[in-house]
Amino acid sequence: MTATINRTDIELSDDWRSWTPDEQDHWAREVRRLAAEKDAVILAHNYQLPMIQDIADHVGDSLALSRLAAASDRGTIVFCGVHFMAETAKILSPGKRVLIPDAAAGCSLADTINADQLRAWKAEHPGAVVVSYVNTTAEVKAETDICCTSSNAVEVVRSIDPDTEVLFGPDQFLGAHVRRQTGRSNIHVWLGECHVHADISPSDLMATVRAHPDAELFVHPECGCTTSALWMAGRGEFPRERTHILSTGGMLDAARTTTGTAVLVATEIGMLHQLHKARPDVTFTPVNPKAACPFMQMITPPKLLRSLREGTDEVVVDADTAERARRAVERMIAIGRPGGGE
Ligand code: 13P
Ligand code: SF4
Predict the structure, then answer these.
(1) What are phi and psi of 61, to 5 degrees?
(2) Per-residue b/e over 276-294, b at no fewer than 16 CB within 10 Å?
(3) How far is the CA of 178 from the centre of ligand 2 (A)?
(4) Is the CB of residue 300 below 6 angstroms from any atom belonging to ligand 1?
């Protein structure tokens, strides 16, 4: 496509991958100028394209970005991530204008459960506490007792009376991780998955680990290979002390302090940009180099510029749904470590 974005001093094509260094500089200056003019803060998830991460005010994991959105004193939040993240920011800050550069940036995991399905599941387990991953729609959050992210899921479940049943959804691999970590048998787990992380398979993991036997291993708990990583550690095939199950923010914290020189990374490949920046002296190798999230990549440099110029796409959550969802999201941001973003 060759549509153009008109600017005062230059025209930028939508084909941003072929921009010259001068055009990239113009884009960056224009984004920063408009952000200041519109009183906007730009938040970017760790899986965003490198150019988006580099122009943002803050880059972080889901939990850190939710906290930053809630604490921001700017009138506008431009959320470079997927739709449920921008919606969560709107739920926390109903008085602010929240923009996402492309509202069609969805999430295959969030699509695995809707509010009707959750209501039916609750009816089967009266009295259970519902814990929903933040990767869900506002309507699902409105039916939820406490939300969580991958960085605080274990702590959220530990905060619940051990004798009370828990409905955990929608990610089955994160649910299995929480069940293992808490040792609880009264957790029911929804069988959803993220297609990107599910595709980071046990065979990818085994091949990569065998090719790099001295490396550290960072695994996101949404991965289809999380159980295999721990199984390999349990059988002594790969040392347990070098196997770390971490959120994206946790991976960055661990990268900053690692004493190793090589790290294998099982998550979406956008993560490698922050890891390389944090530790240029360490070699980071993706377990599946094709694990790119198509939804995250829908947020492109031209769309970010257009979002700031034209106020698109504005995120709207109806007041009643937002009110009911807010309790669950506020409980989420109150639990867990403060880090995970910068
Ligand atoms: P975190 O940033 O919370 O680790 O989440 C990963 C993810 O899949 C977001 O879509
Ligand atoms: Fe959703 Fe998976 Fe993409 Fe994260 S990586 S936004 S969970 S589809």
Answers:
(1) -90, 180
(2) eebbeebebebbbeebebe
(3) 19
(4) no
135 lines ligand 1 (CB under 6 A): yes
> How far does the centroid of ligand 2 lie from the alpha carbon of residue 93, in Å?
23
223 lines ligand 2 (CB under 6 A): no
Neighbours of 7 (CB within 10 A): 13
Cα(289)–Cα(292) distance, rounded to whole angstroms?
Answer: 8
d(CA 195, CA 179): 21
Kindly state the tokens that stand for 120: 């039916």
pLDDT tens track for 100-138: 999 999 999 999 999 999 999 999 999 999 999 999 999
Residues 187-210 pLDDT 10s: 999 999 999 999 999 999 999 999
Look-up of token digits 């190793």: 260
Long-range contacts of 255-260 (CB under 8 A, 24+ apart): 255/218, 255/279, 255/282, 255/284, 258/216, 258/282, 260/214, 260/215, 260/216
Place of tokens 């604490």: 71
Distance from Cα 83 to the centre of ligand 2, integer Å: 10
Residue 120, number of CB atoms within 10 A of its CB: 9
Pocket test for ligand 1, best of 248, 265, 329, 332 (most atoms within 8 A of CB): 248
Side chain identity, residue 205: L
Q: Which ligand has its closest atom nearest to the C-alpha of 200?
A: 2
Q: Is the CB of 274 under 6 A from ligand 1?
A: no
> pLDDT tens, 53-87?
999 999 999 889 989 999 999 999 999 999 999 99
pTM, to two decimals: 0.93
196 lines ligand 2 (CB under 6 A): yes
Domains annotated for the chain, with CATH where assigned, are 4-105+296-320 (3.40.50.10800), 110-193 (3.40.50.10800), 200-286 (3.40.50.10800)
Closest protein CA for atom 7 of ligand 2:
194
Q: Does residue 151's CB lie within 6 angstroms of at least one atom of ligand 1?
A: yes
